[in-house]
Amino acid sequence: MKRTELEKLKGKKIDAALGQGRIPHRFGQGAAQIVDRREQRKRDQALGLIPFAVKLESALVQEVQSRAQARQMGLSELVGELLRKGLESAAK
Predict the structure, then answer these.
(1) How far apart are CA 64 and CA 70, in angstroms?
(2) Residue 67 class from Cβ within 10 Å (0-12 exposed, 13-18 middle, 19+ buried)?
(3) 43 Cβ neighbours under 8 A, 6+ residues apart
(4) Contact between 77 and 65 (Cβ < 8 Å)
(5) CA 35, CA 31: separation in Å to the nearest integer?
(6) Is the separation of the CB atoms in 75 and 54 below 8 Å?
(7) How many CA atoms lie within 13 A of 53 on its CB side?
(8) Alpha helices of the chain — where are they, by DSSP H?
(9) pTM above 0.85, yes or no
(10) 53-62: string of b/e by CB count within 10 Å (b at 16+)?
(11) Under a CB-based contact definition with an 8 Å cutoff, are residues 34 and 22 in contact?
């Protein structure tokens, strides 16, 4: 390999290592308590949660996000609540 290619590989390794690092505690409260993806997946499965990806208009997403912030609840909780209400009203 050429020297430049080796340097590029070193840079990619460094970038990958930085991307996987945890946030130091001094940058946020409880940042040291970050759960890795595998543990989070196990917790979600125990609660019966399933990932559900959808594509929505940006205005609608912003409205849902602002409502979640106003009610001080998670985005997933609010979307679940709104879906339940919508399904109940559609069934009537």
Answers:
(1) 10
(2) middle
(3) 35
(4) no
(5) 10
(6) no
(7) 0
(8) 3-20, 37-46, 58-70, 75-91
(9) no
(10) eeeeeeeeee
(11) yes
Which sign, positive or negative, has the C-alpha torsion 69, 70, 76, 77?
positive
Please identify which residue in the block is written with the tokens 């130091």.
24
> Which whole-number Å values give the CA distances from 59 to 22, 62, 68, in the listed order?
32, 5, 14
Structure tokens at 61: 């997403």
Phi-psi region at 47: left, alpha or beta (left = phi > 0; alpha = psi -120 to 50): alpha
pLDDT tens figures, 40-76: 889 889 989 888 889 999 999 999 999 999 999 999 9
How many angstroms separate the CA atoms of 30 and 21, rounded? 15
Q: Is the pLDDT of residue 30 over 60?
A: no
Residue 56 in tokens: 């929505």
